[in-house]
Amino acid sequence: MATYIMLSTLTDEGRKTVKQKPDRIKQVNKEIEMMGAKVLAQYAVLGPYDFVNVVEAKDNQTIAKISMELGSRGTVHFLTMPAIAVDNFIGALK
Fold it and tell me: Domain coordinates of the chain in residue numbers?
């Protein structure tokens, strides 16, 4: 399984939804699992992004499908990046 960092920003509609139904955040995490990935960690943050998510998925195609599916709803925008564990990165350099 590969690890991905998903930075997400809510749209105006997304902010309304989360304000009215804060538990929607956890429901989306369950949807992500049904699409073949797992949210390992999730943080609400201040700044240009609203959430930082650490997600594990089988491959780039799976995470791309998830980003497209969730983004197509019009409630959130994503910046998704593959992440490499530092030990693996160091090993690749040797």
Answer: 2-93
